Amino acid sequence: MSVTPTTISFARGVPSFDMLPTAEIGEAAARVLADDPAGVLSYGAAEGYRPLRQWVADRYDADVERVLLTNGSLQGLALLAELLFADAGGRAIVEAPTYDRTLLTLRRFGAAVQSVPLEGDGIDLDALESRLQAGAVPGLVYLIPNFQNPAGTTMSRAKRERVVALAGEYEFMVLEDDPYRDLRFSGADEPTMLSLDRDDRVIYSTSFTKTVAPGVRVGGLIVPPPLFGRLRALATDTYIAPSHVAQGTVAAYCAAGHFDPGVERAAEMLAERCAALCAAVDRHLGERAVYRRPEGGYFLWLRLPGVDTEGLATRAAEAGVPFVKGSSCYIDGGGTDELRLAFSACAPADMDPGVERLAALLPGA
Ligand SMILES: Cc1ncc(COP(=O)(O)O)c(C=O)c1O
């Protein structure tokens, strides 16, 4: 009798359960309910729980009146997309490849989405500039500067500076989607585009999904003052107020000093997983795979020249080693020989057997 092997999922960009600070989150929830029950059990403010807004403002050296907390950062993106595109339409530029859910959200609200190639150090600025010079100025440029989803790349400082300068010059907004920033395990931090912006052109998106736990569903935007009131009004109309129990729990977690040790521990675990995955890829795929080693985050992006990764994705899902096929992350049918392996959800010991199983599915294996 054949035994179906257990699934080793490279598909989902989520932390494994053992990465989550379960006890600390439990204590934080109990503490905030005991200390501020009225603050977290009422509807609360549409812009979010004030102590957590203040914590975010302090961390990014921003005015607290610019911080709008949402139920996960994706909801902030959805509010922004609705505000910018639902009535007026317009153009949004994304990196190719990019986060597939953003593509869906922008399109759902009527944006005409175009893409510009992503290079090893961030968006191809020559390609972006020639679009701008040709008059194709977008309403929004969406960038994931650190440990990009799906490509794992990090944008250089020079490119960050140039994007901010172009945004001022051509008058477009930049959405800096930065949920992985704190999960660096090698190299040095680059400044946020938010910190380089002097013209209120950058909207910064952060999330506690990767740094505390996905289930808290707490994220948020730091927005230029002219947009803040309109986003808050849209938030009120959409859900009255975000979950203050969740935001209060995260606020108590951060106030207790757990945030930095928590991300340090997560980054150490991710470093080990990334190393184990790269070693497995080298061992089982060797020269067939082309990749750049990420300096943090969750994702390893592979190119397998000559391999149809769409067909491979179907066979891999059947064989219990699912991954995200490259074409999901492009708007124009690119990525057909690329794929994303998430190393966040797998134990280091699963990487080798998982990649071995995947390699056995390749043509000619
Ligand atoms: C680049 C990027 N943005 C946003 C999100 C969504 O985050 P949240 O859970 O805060 O909604 C993700 C989740 O994988 C992501 O990779």
List the helices and strands and how they pair.
Blueprint lengths: L21 H14 L1 H5 L8 H10 L7 E4 L2 H14 L4 E6 L3 H9 L3 E8 L2 E2 L1 H9 L6 E4 L13 H14 L2 E5 L15 H4 L5 E6 L11 E4 L2 H15 L4 H12 L3 H26 L5 E2 L7 E5 L5 H10 L5 E2 L12 E5 L5 H12 L6
The protein binds pyridoxal-5'-phosphate (PLP).
The site of pyridoxal-5'-phosphate has 13 residues, from helix 4.
Describe this structure as you would to a colleague.
This protein is of the alpha/beta class and 365 residues long. The protein is built from 13 helices and twelve strands. The strands form two sheets. Strands 1-8-7-6-5-2-3-4 form an eight-stranded mixed beta sheet, with helices on both faces. A four-stranded antiparallel beta sheet has the order 9-10-12-11, with helices on one face. It is globular, with a radius of gyration of 21 Å. The relative contact order is 0.18. The model has no long low-confidence stretch (mean pLDDT 97). The structure holds pyridoxal-5'-phosphate. Pyridoxal-5'-phosphate is lined by residues 13, 72-74, 99, 144, 149, 177, 179, 207, 209, 214, 219.
